[in-house]
Amino acid sequence: MFRECVKMAIDGMSASKLRTFLTMLGIIIGVGAVIAMVSLGFGMQEQVKKNISSMGSNLLIVMSGGRTASGQRIASGSGAKLTYDDAKAIEKKVDGIKYVAPGVQSSYQLVEGNQNWTSQVQGTTPNIIDIRDYKIEDGRMFTEKDLSSRARVCVLGQTVVDNLFPEGNPVGKIMRINKAPFKVIGTLSSKGQSAMGQDQDDLVYIPLTTAQQRMMGITYIRNITIQADNENTINQAQADIEELLRQRHKIREGADDDFTVRNLSALIETMQETTGTITLLLAIIAAISLLVGGIGIMNIMLVSVTERTREIGIRKALGATYNNILLQFLIEAVVIGVVGGVIGTIFGIVTAVIISHFANWEVVISIWSIIIAVVFSVGIGLFFGIYPARKAALLDPIDALRYE
Hints:
- The chain has helices spanning about 1-15, 15-55, 85-95, 130, 145-150, 160-165, 210-215, 235-250, 265-305, 310-315, 320-360, 365-395, 395-400, and strands spanning about 60-65, 95-110, 115-125, 135-140, 155, 175, 180-190, 205, 225-230, 260-265.
- By secondary structure, the protein is an alpha+beta fold.
- It folds into two domains: about 1-50 and about 280-400, no CATH class; about 80-250, no CATH class.
- It has a six-stranded mixed β-barrel.
- β2 and β3 form a beta hairpin.
- The longest helix is centred in the last third of the chain and has 44 residues, at about 265-305.
């Protein structure tokens, strides 16, 4: 009997193909919108995580300059400045730390032959490429020996290579940084843009001592980049670093720090929470169209019951029971929900891929979002089909046969 009810439901839908399609359209758009928005939202979360992680994993960045009790920012470099000795003390005394790389940076004009380019020149230690997860494309990174001898050597990012050395490999060649000659000893593999939209390949690494004494004439450093052993040790390492620096800078209890420690793991969590909230909001907005689609199913089913009143009367006169009629119309509503959900899923995936292609966004197709959207569409069809089906099943066969 169930199979017969399914057959009658499909025959009834086939008899009015356009009306059935228009009824499905609300479900198709609703499911498609939910899947597209959720997929783009998850893609945004992954993109944020990937961009921040490209700066390095489990990172702490200590910067000169802190905040007052009122939250006002102390100017970077004011008060007791960070020193190379601070970085060495952190590396020696703080547990749970893998790498430490102090640094200074400034923007300089770079010249090679008739080519010139302005880029960020960073004085640092060899550990920086391990912390920032750079790979050496050609040549080598400078060493501790280069650091102690204040060697005029440099390692270039790919953007600098492309603009200064369009003819080929720059390793072994001499270029000028702020009119001072430097030998190119290595190039870095490309990393692309950071989370803030900065080009991570537009940089030059030189030894920290060379930058301090030969380029900038300073004794302090501007920041210390630290990589913790793992995500479980990073918060304790941050607390130990803050305590150590307060002791070294002789900051009294209750006084404002003259440094700031940024935890990039906490930044990832915060940004993922934000993008997660945005994704949920987009999904809720898209789900409203599913509700509208459900109302469309109920409206069309009510019209169908009215149009097929005489047919219902004949079926009842021939022996169809309350349950037979109820099941027939419920199946029609559920089939509309199922078919609409499947088409909507395809539509949503295609839409998400097209948007991501043209907008250059990342997209993550979640199997759970597909399952939930389809189940929800079936539930919508069932829920909004109950009233019209019950109305059809309760029709009196005598009145139904008299209906014109």
